[in-house]
Amino acid sequence: SLEKKTKEELPASFTENEVINKLTTENEQLKELVNSLEKKTKEELPSSFTENEVINKLTTENEQLKELVNSLEKKTKEEFPASFTDNEVINKLSEEKEHFKDQVSSLERKIDETEKKYEETSTISEERMNQIIETESKMIELKTNMQRLEEKLSDMETENQIFRKQTLLTSSSKRITPAAIPPLENGHPVAVKTLGSESVRRSHMERHQESVDALFKCVVKDIGFSDGKPVAAFTLYNCLLHWKSFEADKTSIFDRLIQLIGSAIEDQDNDNCMAYWLSNTSALFFHLQRCLRAPARKPPTPTGFFGRVTQGFRSSNSLSSGSFDVEHQVEAKYPALLFKQQLAAYVEKIYGIVRENMKKELSPLLSTCIEEQRTRNDDSQPSGSWLKIIECLDRFLKILKENYVPPILIQKVFNQTFQYINAEIFNSLLLHKECCTFNSGEYIKSGLAELELWCTEVTEEYAGSSLDELNHSKQAVRFLVSQEKDEISYDDLTNDICPVLSSQQLYRLCTLYSNENENENSKSVSTDVTTRIKLLMTDDVGEDDKSFLLEDNSSLPIIVEEVSHSQKDKTIPKVKPPSELLESASFQFLHDYS
Predict the structure, then answer these.
(1) Which helix H or strand E contains 168, and what residues bound it?
(2) CB proximity list for 227: less than 8 A, separation 6 or greater
(3) Average pLDDT for 466-479
(4) Is 442 in the same domain as 504?
(5) Most buried by CB count within 10 Å: which residue of 30, 237, 316, 571?
(6) Domain containing 117: what range?
(7) Residue 299: pLDDT above 70?
């Protein structure tokens, strides 16, 4: 029963230590059992038993117990071989544990490598997709630009042919006397008109001339605006359209109109007058640019497959360009095309006058600011000169807005004006040692902050990208007010602080920076940085060369034809005609255009 009990209580999964502990416990229990039996025997045996009998009985029981213990030990040894020691079990388990650890580590490495490759592949795929999208966008833009250039070239060729033809006709008319040529109509001689028909024609011409005189007498005055549109410009266009002046082979009305504009802008110091005529001439030009077209020429029939496909592509694009071009364009003749070119020149001229007037007013204010930064000690607050610059900008913006100058032209004016401000400030920093200081940087920084605030307040509609024109000055100031300049690395200087400055400008800025005040703000960059910058400077640039100065491109003329493409408003405006003209019966047709 003890063996059976041992089998039941000792599962095969027990380790040797557990078996030994179990056996030890059983032995202790057996010993206690023996002691208990001996005690019980003494109590239960009658006194009549002899000592030998007791001894024999106990001896027999002890032998039985010994045999039982030996049998149990033998059975235990059979079930747990002696070769299966405790150390071997531990070693085997340790080996398996290490093997599993290696497998887990290997799997983790493979997972990490796979994730890394996936991320790299995803990044590459995303970059390639972006490149493809960007390339497609550029291709579409290039196709659009190429088509636009081809159309513009075609128009220019047509206009040039008209101009050459007109020149030949003019030169021929000078060589041949009028008496030698009979009157022609469509290439055939016609009978000389009678006196009656001649008087009727002369009467009609006189009435037309009176109408033209009345129109010019009206529009030469400031007749204001209607719903934000210049009344003079669109009244002129509507009259010229009604009189079919654009389609006339010969007329003097455009010459008179050009002379009228030239006389109106003689007072170039009158900013309000210049803005008024900039508004009218630009509005008229932009409208003519949309509504007039040169006489159409039949294009040559394409012979190849690619040519036919290209022609089909162009025709589909032209049909989808909007109904405005198809319904309202007028086929203009030589005088009208010439007038459009002359009008464009006047728009550019008046625009230049407005821009130069603003620069002329800003120049002494900027000079005062530059002088103040050389002598001023307190650096945190903008001076009165900066505030006067803001007042000047506000004044011109108010004039331009009150005269409804197109926002695209206002943006151009302020962009070029800020170019001028940027060049003046930046060059002053690099020309004068006393300007290239920490305090000077703080002073200019406060002024630039005022300009940035102004651009934000007037919104992008009028300021455009003017703030970007100050990048050179802003980055130079960023360097001047930097703390611990001697710890600035070359990469920090060229990539983060002053990325738009050239090597010559960086070298000049770093070497001119003042070390007069012996404090940490006055230390310039290390010699290693200046050495690296100097290595990038071209060999043909000398120490005294002024190549570091920023070129002032603010006086470059605009190309008004390019500006016209940026016009967003493509509608035909309805402008209320001047009441002065509506009093005449000859101008009642203007009601149809209002």
Answers:
(1) helix 86-175
(2) 573, 574, 575, 576
(3) 93
(4) yes
(5) 237
(6) 87-173
(7) no
